[in-house]
Amino acid sequence: MSIATEKSLYRILIVDDDDTIRESIVHYLENFHEAGYDLAIESSPDAPEARQRIEQTPFDLIISDINLPHDDGFRLLQFARQKRPQSKTALITAYKVEDYVRLARETGICNIIAKTAPFNFEELSCVVTNLLDPASAFGLKNYLAPESQIHHEVIRNSKQIMETFYRLREFCEKSGVRNVDSLSTALIEAMTNAVYHAAKLPDGTLKYKKGQEIEHLEEHEAVSLYYGRDDDRVGVGIVDQGGRITADEILYWLDRNISGAGLLDSHGRGVYLMHNLVDRLIINISPGERTEIITLDYFSPEYSTNKPLFINQL
Amino acid sequence: MKIDQQQLGGLYTIFETLPSGLLIYDHDENVIQMNSRAKELLKIPLQKSIQTLRDLPDYLVELRILLQNAEEDIPRSEINLLFPEAAETSTIGFSMKHIRLEDTVAQARIFVFNDITHIVRDRRAMDKIKEELYQSKKLASIGTMISGVAHELNNPLTGISMSTQLTRMTLKAALKKLDENGNGDPRVRGALEKALQELDKTDREAKKASALVSELLNYSRPSKMTLTLENLSRVIEEMVQALKSHPDFSPIRFEIQPGPAELEVLCDRLKIEQVFYNLFKNAVDATGGKGTIRISFHETTEPRENRHMLVVNVADEGPGMDKTILARIFDPFFTTKGAEGIGLGLSISYRTIEQHGGQITVDSEKGKGTVFHVALPVFEEDEILI
Asked: What is the least distance, in Å, from the CA of B157 to any CA of chain A?
C-alpha cells in the first residue's frame, strides 16, 4: 500500500511564433520531462496573447523566443517579472546567443537556450529543472547519465593544481574528447581561478597572488574537482567555497570580451575563453557559499556551434 | 624639305621650352623638327642629329613603325617602349595630327608625346585598390545575405529535429508497450521498426543541412578575435613542424626561409593558423600531395595608409590557375574541388586577414604554380591599444 503524496504543480508558459517548435516543446515537456513534480503547460504564438495569459496566470516559468512578431522576448520577460517577480525566465533563439549577452545582462536573464539542429531536448529539460528547483542545478551528476562514475579530487595547495590537472587531462584524452587542447586551456584557467580568486582577505582583496606558491589552503579554501563521462559526453565540475562572483559580473565579462572592449586585458578573459573552448559551460553560484563551474564536451561535434548561456544563481 | 631654326623664328624657342616631346616629320620620313625634350624622353643623345625617321635608334623600331603608318590623326594613345638597360617598359602617351605647314603644299605630321609611366603605374595601383574594395564589399554583402538565409533555415531545421526526435520517442514508447503486453501483432511491430528506420534517414539529411547552415553562420558572422602579439615566422614554423606528422601533409616538402624575428604581429593566433592551414591544404590539393611548398617572408609598405607590413609568401608547384579562376577564388562557394569542398576556405581566409587589417593576394599562371601573399600589419611599439 502506498501513501499518495500530493506532487507540486508548476505552471509553465512557452512563447514562440514557430508552431512546430512551440508545439514540440510543449509535447516534450508534457510527455518526456521526468521530474518529481507535475507541469501545467500553456503556450502562445505571439506577445500580445502571451501578455494576456501572464496577466491571468501566475506562471512559475516562462520560456520565450527572442524574435517575436512586433515584440521581443526580453521585453516580454521583463513584463512577466514586473507582474510576478518570483517567475523564472529563459529565452530561446535561432540566432547567435553571444549577440544577446549585453541584453541579457541589462534585463537580468541568465539562461538562453539555442535552437540547434539536432535540438538538445535533454538540455531543455535541464534548464526547466534548474529554474524550477535551483538546488538541482548543482552537482556534476545532474548533467551526466544516471549511474555514471564520477571522480572527485580535492586541491589543497598550489602544486596539486597541476597534478590533478594532468590526471584530468589524461582522463579526457582516454575518454575521446574531440579537442583536448581547447578543453585543457579552459580547465586550467578555471582551476587556477578557483584556487586564487576564491580565497579573499577580510577587506575583500585577494589572499593569494596568481602564480604564487601556496603551501596549504585552509579547509574552507580547498577546491573540489569532479570529472566523469557517459556515452555522449565528458563532464568536469570545479567547485570553490567562495561563491563571490555574481551572475551580473559573469555577463559583464562575457559581454566585454564578446564586444571586443576587453580584448586586451586579461581580467575576465577566463570565463569568455571557457565559454568559447568548451561545448557547454554551466555556472552555478550559491552566493557566499560556492561557485561551481561545469563543462560538458560532447563526443559528437553537433553541439559545438551555437552555445547556450546557462548561469544559475541561488 | 627642312625648316631650319631661322625659318621657325620665335616658334623655335616655344618648341624648345615645351614640357613635352615634339616631333614634326613629312611623308618622306624627313624630320622637320625635333625638340630637345623629345630626344631626352627617347634617350637619344642631344648632339645626335636625327634627319629622318630612319636615324632613330633601333630600340625605337616600334615607334618608327607607328610614325610611318599613321595615316589618320590619333587624338590620344599610348605606346610601351623598352629602353636600353631599363628593367621595365616605359609608357609614352602621345597625340598625332596631320598639319599643313605655312608656305608649303606638303602635308606633315606633328607628334607630341610624354612619358606617362608613373601615371599608368598609379592608375594600375588605383585599379587594384578598386578591385580589392569591390571584392571586400561584395563579400560583406554576400555575408549579410547568407546570415539572413542561414538564420531563417535554422528555425525550420530545429523544428524538423524536434519533430523527428519526438516521433522517435513516441514510437519507442509504443514498442515498449507492445513488449510489456507481450501480445503485439508482429506486423504492427515491424511497421513501427520500419518507421524508426525511416526517421534515421530524415535525421541524416537534416544533419547535412544543419552542418551546412552552421558553416554558413560561421562564415557570415566571423566570431570576435582574441588578439595576442605573435612572431609570425615562429607561428608558421611551429605549424609546419606539427603538420609534418599529419597524414595529409607528410608526403609534401616544406621549405621555409624564416622571417625577421624582431617583427611582431597583433593577431588571433588560432584564426591566423586556420588561414595558413587553408593555404597549405589548397597547395597540397593542387599538387596532388607531392612537391614542395615554399614559404618566405618580406617587408613592405602598404600604400594607402603607409603601414609597415609583413608579408608571408606561400608558393606551391601546382598547375597554377588561369585568369577566370583567379578572379573568383575568394568568392564564397567557388570551388575547384567538386564535391570535396563547399568553397568557403579562401573566402573565410580573405575576411580573416581583412579583419586583421591585412591583405591576401595571389599570383598564379597556368603551368607555373601559385603564390599567395598574406600581408599583416607589423605591430609598432608606439601603437596605442584599444
From this structure: 6
